[in-house]
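Ops channel
N.P.: pipeline sanity check, posting one input/output pair.
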């Protein structure tokens, strides 16, 4: 697969383009690319540019061709609302959610979240997750980078405006996913922490209009649940069906 790099700030097609230092370092020091090697650049504004590496070092440049209108976004716009999880679980969730087509990831602090974040520590962790999202786009072929939102409380998130239906995953809930009507626009899925949502949180979600949802009789881990929902939604309403995607 041709290496892909995210270059924010806008590309200049059909030109010799100066690579950002981080991209140049990764291309030369990590991937060991050489002058003349092919690469693909994207700036998050849609489409991508194929190019050839012209120079390396501090002034690394690539000769770009025209912008190609290549999009690999799903027809279903899913925001994953993920309760904070401990260890490297959030890294895993962000990476795989981007690969599975989520358009945004919103971290929320739940009552039973083991990981507690606030202030500068929270800002640094969100910036880290955003870079994971960038790397996942480079790997998976996406040309639009999903945003990772600032950490907020569940109450604050639910008090905000809802763009389309919101589903809250809860073991034992009634209402199979396959019986849900496909929404006309975006939707959100709320995933609880390691200890699950508290009764008070589920009540708060219900009052905010969230629809309860269960995925079969088994209890899934927090790092599994959101990814399973994303895969199921892509199969039902997104771009998983069809031989052309195999």
């Amino acid at each position: 697969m041709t290496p892909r790099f995210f270059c924010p700030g806008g590309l200049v097609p059909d030109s010799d383009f100066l690579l950002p230092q981080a991209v140049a370092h990764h291309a030369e020091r990590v991937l060991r690319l050489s002058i003349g090697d092919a690469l693909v650049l994207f700036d998050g504004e849609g489409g991508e540019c194929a190019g050839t590496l012209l120079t390396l070092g501090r002034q690394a440049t690539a000769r770009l061709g025209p912008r190609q209108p290549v999009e690999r976004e799903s027809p279903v716009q899913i925001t994953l609302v993920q309760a904070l999880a401990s260890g490297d679980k959030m890294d895993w969730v962000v990476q795989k959610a981007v690969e599975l087509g989520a358009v945004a990831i919103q971290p929320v602090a739940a009552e039973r979240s083991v990981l507690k974040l606030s202030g500068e520590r929270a800002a640094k962790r969100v910036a880290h997750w955003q870079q994971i999202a960038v790397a996942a786009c480079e790997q998976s072929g996406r040309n639009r980078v999903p945003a990772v939102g600032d950490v907020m409380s569940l109450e604050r998130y639910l008090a905000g405006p809802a763009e389309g239906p919101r589903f809250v995953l809860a073991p034992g809930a009634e209402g199979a996913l396959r019986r849900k009507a496909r929404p006309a626009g975006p939707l959100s899925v709320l995933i609880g922490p390691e200890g699950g949502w508290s009764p008070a949180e589920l009540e708060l979600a219900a009052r905010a209009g969230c629809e309860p949802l269960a995925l079969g009789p088994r209890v899934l881990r927090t790092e599994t649940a959101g990814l399973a929902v994303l895969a199921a939604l892509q199969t039902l309403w997104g771009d998983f069906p069809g031989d052309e995607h195999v």
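N.P.: looks fine end to end. The mean pLDDT is 93.
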